[in-house]
Amino acid sequence: MGTLTGLYVYPIKSLGGIALAEAQLEARGLQYDRRWMLVDDAGKFLSQREQPGLALLGTALEPPFLSVFLKKNPAGRLKIPLEPQLEEMRETAVQVWGDHCLARLHHPAVNEWFSNVLGVSLRLVFMPDDTRRLADERYAPGRTPVSFADGFPYLLIGQASLDDLNSRLSQPLPMNRFRPNFVFTGGAPYEEDGWRDFKIGNVLFRGVKPCARCIIPTIDQDTAVRTAEPLKTLTTYRRAGQKVLFGQNVVWLGQDVGQIVRVGDMVLPGKKGAAGPC
Q1: Domain with 96 in it
Q2: Cβ distance 135 to 146 under 8 Å?
């Protein structure tokens, strides 16, 4: 048994996350999580892999708006409606890795703000409810929808896993390097690797695939400076083939609209076993 101690959403893919006390569940991820994304002029997604400076942009839920700001100047905020008027937004094709889907394009003034801040031509797009992008069916239950996240709706990491990693590093790193949705305390390091079905409170989830990490954890989320760690150390003991694993990709098995998870909920591992090939 563990306890949910961290709950995070990242409304705009690869921008700063938001710590929440509670969040509403949706099949494609937590409410508002990665429903927005920055793309180039060809519609291909941008992330901190290509633009580390995205880490310097923070976000805040300030209903009825999503606010975006430079972390060094939080007073100057771009406000974006949390419920965009889709009829006023042009439909456009976008690409996330190998997936192609339709999104809605924000007003030119919004796109200009991001382009000016980051010094490259960018456009902000929104994923409406009728867009269906699917998680990899080799791992997730059939036709599981996903937002603009890299591959799966949710990411779970145990605090004990980060503590174990930090014990191997000369300088400890914060959890925000790994951009989880759920953080729990209790249990052994990397215990989540073997979780199949488990509960947060009374809500049932399934671990489907250990998370293969890219270079984003090497980027300081306050300065956008990239270093060798933690991948250099993780490679020495968390390697599986050509991949380095940290965290567990998760899907929600519920159906009830409006289900909520809260910081402080019990985390109850159930059936364990391999979650699928890595």
Answers
A1: 34-126
A2: yes
